[in-house]
């Protein structure tokens, strides 16, 4: 079999148009920058005495630039859509074949956007996100990788080969290379080439998304649980409690982040059991948060409060004990028959490290918001009604701080994703054969000047996810400021 081309059957027709559009985009961008330095045309007086602006050369060059950009996007959409409907991998090309593998993701994205736009007026801040083009673009990128992780990790529907499978003769092969010795039932190509160990780069990129999506959002959520549980009383109560908690947060923040990560994930520290003991403490905060939240809400109805606490805390307590219990660590509190699952040691260490590093920053944000919001009139009204401190903190202050916290949550997932990639790049925490993007970039960088695809593909995946999170955070920030 011949290697695949990038664009398949449509290439001879659309590639010249794409190149022309790229040239026009580049020239119009340069022209816009140069013409923007010239003075704007003077407005023209109308018959009614008003002044009307006139388009200058810079305005026309911007219109040309926008037209070229739309043409490029249209051609990209045609390539992606054609890959789904054109039969035959050879006719699809690399881009089309990759798009066809992502068919479940495209369907999930279309359904998500259709439902969200239809009911956006009922969805609060999330619905307002679809009034913001930047936020929508970021949301699309983020959901693309979330759906990719779900379909690949849970249903094995996207990858073409196993993330750890090695094929003879496929070491450092270029994208679109036919699989050497392919048998019936095997996918016949390495769509994005092979790495230094003859593994499929496309499959490892897709599998790596499941590793990142499992760790980054959950670790950030746990960090927010810790930061909110400690930051609210520090900002609302103040005094010695605030001084003590702020001192501890500043003590942790005084360490450089990478150095702190390095200290927490090194084998010598792991052998001491410190990450396991940190997990015992940090994973307890969601239980504390939910307990205080429910108790504050139903404090005047003890019977209902007890029932709800039992329904929530019994399963979550069992889940907590399963999370922290591991036969290979000093923390082994559950019998094997009751332990629901075992988290791999590397993932647990990285997870705990991310929570430990991010929690102090979240604490300071929540503390500052609490100090500001506690001076508002509705807080004084709640105090006049005789509400308790925890009720005021969780049901008056926290809901009114949700806008900045949601924006920071999105940004912090991006920071966490970068930190995970950094750890993987330095070979810390996760196993060396892990398909996470940082480890994959590190494995491919050694031959970057000769075979760049093995490192560029996961790097672009990491870039797109972080870019999507930042764009979504910008959109949420703009919409939250309109409230």
Automatic annotation (TrEMBL):
<keyword id="KW-0472">Membrane</keyword>
<protein>
    <submittedName>
        <fullName>Peptide ABC transporter permease</fullName>
    </submittedName>
</protein>
<dbReference type="GO" id="GO:0055085">
    <property type="term" value="P:transmembrane transport"/>
</dbReference>
<feature type="transmembrane region" description="Helical">
    <location>
        <begin position="63"/>
        <end position="87"/>
    </location>
</feature>
<feature type="transmembrane region" description="Helical">
    <location>
        <begin position="450"/>
        <end position="473"/>
    </location>
</feature>
<feature type="domain" description="ABC transmembrane type-1">
    <location>
        <begin position="209"/>
        <end position="473"/>
    </location>
</feature>
<comment type="similarity">
    <text>Belongs to the binding-protein-dependent transport system permease family.</text>
</comment>
<dbReference type="GO" id="GO:0005886">
    <property type="term" value="C:plasma membrane"/>
</dbReference>
<feature type="transmembrane region" description="Helical">
    <location>
        <begin position="409"/>
        <end position="430"/>
    </location>
</feature>
<feature type="transmembrane region" description="Helical">
    <location>
        <begin position="306"/>
        <end position="323"/>
    </location>
</feature>
<feature type="transmembrane region" description="Helical">
    <location>
        <begin position="93"/>
        <end position="115"/>
    </location>
</feature>
<keyword id="KW-0813">Transport</keyword>
<keyword id="KW-1133">Transmembrane helix</keyword>
<feature type="transmembrane region" description="Helical">
    <location>
        <begin position="244"/>
        <end position="265"/>
    </location>
</feature>
<feature type="transmembrane region" description="Helical">
    <location>
        <begin position="343"/>
        <end position="366"/>
    </location>
</feature>
<keyword id="KW-1003">Cell membrane</keyword>
<dbReference type="InterPro" id="IPR050366">
    <property type="entry name" value="BP-dependent_transpt_permease"/>
</dbReference>
<dbReference type="InterPro" id="IPR000515">
    <property type="entry name" value="MetI-like"/>
</dbReference>
<dbReference type="Pfam" id="PF00528">
    <property type="entry name" value="BPD_transp_1"/>
</dbReference>
<keyword id="KW-0812">Transmembrane</keyword>
<feature type="transmembrane region" description="Helical">
    <location>
        <begin position="211"/>
        <end position="232"/>
    </location>
</feature>
<feature type="transmembrane region" description="Helical">
    <location>
        <begin position="277"/>
        <end position="294"/>
    </location>
</feature>
<dbReference type="InterPro" id="IPR035906">
    <property type="entry name" value="MetI-like_sf"/>
</dbReference>
<feature type="transmembrane region" description="Helical">
    <location>
        <begin position="136"/>
        <end position="155"/>
    </location>
</feature>
<feature type="transmembrane region" description="Helical">
    <location>
        <begin position="20"/>
        <end position="42"/>
    </location>
</feature>
